[in-house]
Design a protein that fits this description.
By secondary structure, the protein is an alpha+beta fold. Helix content is about 20%, strand content about 45%. The protein has a single domain, classed as Immunoglobulins (Immunoglobulin-like). The protein contains three helices and eleven strands.
């Protein structure tokens, strides 16, 4: 219980520090950061153009960014309400929840993780390393003409 309280306090402090680096024009449209049951600070959103811009700007302050999109011919659609499960190197679930927009940001300690998500009939598990550089993973589902949905994952 004490460890979780300390983790929440550290995450809250980090959130305040990060928000100080985000210009006020973006903060007005930024959804609130949340703390998961596992003590992971995260932020998800991007449902409006203003919120999407704010979340993309805030992404620079988080070590992990996930993006969820579908391409259907020439149109692109942002995906919402995707399940996200993040496991540490030992297989312990450190985050389990859903996105509230096409962007998901998480503040994780340095280490090796796997991210699992699902959309339509496709599931993906992608290894991610958190370290000195940010990790950006785009989960991209492409509908090809006259075929079933094809899914791709891209590291950015």
């Amino acid at each position: 219980m004490m460890q979780q309280a300390i983790a929440c306090a550290v995450a809250a402090s980090a959130a305040l520090t990060a928000s100080a680096a985000i210009p006020p024009a973006y903060l007005d449209h930024l959804p609130p950061a949340q703390i998961s049951a596992g003590g992971v600070e995260y932020l998800t959103g991007g449902k409006t153009p203003q919120e999407a811009d704010a979340v993309k700007r805030a992404a620079q302050e988080f070590p992990l960014e996930l993006v969820f999109v579908e391409h259907d011919g020439k149109s692109t659609r942002d995906l919402y309400d995707n399940p996200v499960v993040i496991r540490d190197a030992k297989g312990k679930v450190v985050f389990a929840g859903r996105t509230d927009g096409p962007y998901f940001l998480a503040r994780l300690p340095d280490g090796h993780y796997t991210v699992t998500t699902h959309w339509d009939s496709w599931s993906f598990t992608k290894p991610v390393t958190i370290g000195p550089e940010r990790s950006r993973v785009v989960f991209e589902w492409k509908k090809l003409p006259h075929t079933n949905l094809v899914a791709e994952v891209e590291n950015g």
